[in-house]
Amino acid sequence: MKAPSKGLQGKNKVYFDSLDQEVEIVPISDNKKREMEIYQLEEGDIVNITIYGQPEVFPFVQDTGPNSPYSKRVNKKGFIYFPFVGNVKAKDLTLDDLREEITLKLSKDFIDPKVDINIVKFNENRNIYIVGEVVKPSSIPLGLENFSLSQAIAKVGGFDAITASANDVFVVRIGNNNEDSKVYHADLSSPVELIVANQFLLEPKDIVFVGATNLTNFNRVISQLIPGVNLGNRRYLD
Fold this sequence. Notes:
It is a single chain. This protein is of the alpha+beta class. The protein folds into two domains: 13-36 and 125-230, Outer membrane lipoprotein wza fold like, CATH 3.10.560; 46-121, wza like fold, CATH 3.30.1950. It has four helices and 13 strands. A hairpin with an 8-residue loop joins strand 10 (169-173) and strand 11 (182-186).
């Protein structure tokens, strides 16, 4: 079975058993540009909270990473716990919202507390996955900065020099409902599509697959990541 790298005329499709739907394979140029939204905290995010001007109570620590005593994970109920503040609802709040909430609560015990908050680790639902014929297949946590298809491939060491087919690159994007699901195709042997790939922004849970000479590996790898994906007999080349 040859990969659908040529003749994309709207009739190449993949079938998602779990969605009971055929999803069209479209060129990456069809991806609509999206506006960057202000991030709202989710379950599993870890935030580091720094309090300035109160060294007796909140002494300076060198470690500001996930294991810092001032780093807190948003729990399943959407809360974090912080000394002198107690439990604070963090889920669905922006960093500015959470900073204001903690500042307000600390103001009951401290004069003019200065609070700074940063995300030090994102929840796993924001991961993207780069698989197939690349040097180092792996998952990558997606932060708040734009991250393109080109950057993702470079991050894992690029294409496998022996087995990769640069004209068979796919991005699987499962939407919140059936109509939003997409499979994008890129021919990165083309200089024009290399430029487009640098402008194609990845989203949380995207799966980037770099093919070889056929779609056998695509079926196997993608079905492991998303149960119910089947290219089987539902792909059309007319």
